[in-house]
Amino acid sequence: MRKKATIQDVADLAGVSKATVSKFINNTPYVSQKTKKKIEEAIKTLQFQPNSVARGLVKKSTKLIGLVVSNYESMLNMELIKAVEAEAAKYQFSVVLFSTNDEERHERELPEVLVNKYEHLDGIILANVRKEGVELDKFKQTFQHIVLLHRHIPNSAFDYVVIDGYQGGRIAAEHLVSLGHKKMAMITGPREIYQFQERIRGFNDVLQENGLHQDFLVVRSGQTVEEGLTAAKKVLIRPNAPTAIFASTDVMALGVLEAARDVGLNVPCDLSVIGFDNIYFSKFAAVPLTTIDARMRDLGEMAVRLLIERLEGRTKEGVRKIELSPNLVKRESCKERKHPIQRS
């Protein structure tokens, strides 16, 4: 009995890549007439019969969406994955997960991996990618529909949905200023991440408006609890240490809480702390964390809707840019400033 031909068999006989055969089947504009003829001849020779995935390609849909996250362990990403999968299921789409393991090298290699092995995906949602990491233009050669989630890359040609980081920074600063804090610090992540830069800008603008920017300290840190702890300790042992710290993520803020305890400070009596994201565990911290809600469920749901509207041809607009407004979630880690910092 003759073995059933596959897309790879067609590609081998035609002397092209699997991705090129998929483009041909999907009738994309990137295949030359000469190449089309080779593929047509190979299909005829092999009597190629598409499997369920290939048939989906012919119909321009496999009902599969790729979701790329920085890692699977992050509490933020877990919430995001759950939201994307639930929203996609409403439209009868399934989600294929990919992780870059927080490594820039893996982000750079990602386009080639997806193009070579997962070109049948209808579209891609890229969450939390670095500005310089993923080479986005390479995706366009195979995937027509891409949405950036929780990470805005300026001047990119892709739809994106993010939380308004600038407004989030302003909200955090306004809350601390309203509590009477005058010396504040911010612990934030890498410069290349646009969201972090926007949070700094929003926070600093409020301090400038209130004449408090001269003593504002910005400290760069990694994004783990341990790295947040290390950065916060360096801040808190300084002379004239700040009375409030805004951390760019809740995870880093958890490190700040530990650092305060280690140097003998009470949160919130001696030090006020605000995080950003409102991850599930922030309300269960040793001191329940006041934070800026990044609305991850809303972001995930909106990213799926943007992508599916493109896939189903329900919009012909140019690049769509959606920024959701963040909210302040008040818990127990911030307090009105009434006395100088005390160390036990």
Automatic annotation (TrEMBL):
Boundaries of every HTH cro/C1-type domain copy: 6-53
Organism: Halalkalibacter krulwichiae
Residue stretches spanning the membrane: none
Gene3D superfamilies linked: 3.40.50.2300, lambda repressor-like DNA-binding domains
Signal peptide: none
Superkingdom, taxonomy of origin: Bacteria
Domain HTH lacI-type, chain residue ranges per copy: 5-59
PROSITE patterns xref list: HTH_CROC1 (PS50943), HTH_LACI_1 (PS00356), HTH_LACI_2 (PS50932)
A single MF term (Gene Ontology): transcription cis-regulatory region binding
Keyword entries, A-Z: DNA-binding, Transcription, Transcription regulation
InterPro entries: Cro/C1-type_HTH, HTH_LacI, LacI/GalR-like_sensor, Lambda_DNA-bd_dom_sf, Peripla_BP_I
Pfam families documented for this protein: LacI, Peripla_BP_3
Name of this protein: HTH-type transcriptional regulator DegA
